[in-house]
Amino acid sequence: MTEPAPPPPGPPSPRIGTAERDAAMAALDAHLEAGRLDVEEYGERSARAAEARTAADLEPLFTDLPDPRPPFGAAPAPAVPATPGTTERDPVARREPGALARYGPAISGALPIIALVLFLTVPIPNAWVFFLVIPLGGWLFASSRRGGS
Q: Where are the residues of the annotated region Disordered (predicted)?
């Protein structure tokens, strides 16, 4: 007698991303805080959640737990076409950093040396004003990191 053929496999479990893994971790955190999981079991389940690649990898972690649970069967988010200046998490286009933001740290580090060289080499009265370049450069660099405000 021959054995019956195995049933055809169903559709593969959808792959998950960082958002789904984070939701599973948050649910495990809630169960730890509620006392449903001890620290060792929490560690094991959170490690498995961090390594999960598909929704089927996450489901066994919550079979014996009540809500909260991450949404396992939710439809995946629509793919956002990759364009320069966008990220997977934030599809809003971002501007490239300006020259001051890119070179600001190096310039700010060199400003005390530049001010000292100017103070010692430029023969003008009140040469101490060159040292005002240091806080001015720091202010410019800080305002460029805040978005120019």
A: 37-92
Q: Is 148 exposed, middle or buried (0-12, 13-18, 19+ CB in 10 A)?
A: exposed
pLDDT under 70: residue ranges of the chain:
1-10, 72-101, 143-149
The amino acid present at 147, given as its one-letter code, is G
Whether the CB-CB separation of 42 and 30 falls below 8 Å is answered with no
Cα(40)–Cα(30) distance, integer angstroms:
15
Alpha carbon distance, N-terminus to C-terminus of the chain: 81
Q: Give the 3-state secondary structure of residue 82.
A: coil
Ramachandran bin of 112, using left for φ above 0, alpha for ψ from -120 to 50, beta for the remaining angles: alpha
Angstrom distance (rounded) from CA 138 to CA 111: 9
Write the CA distances from 3 to 10, 83, 95, integer angstroms: 20, 52, 63
Beta carbons of 62 and 26 less than 8 angstroms apart: no
Write out pLDDT tens, residues 104-131.
Answer: 777 777 888 888 898 899 888 888 888 8
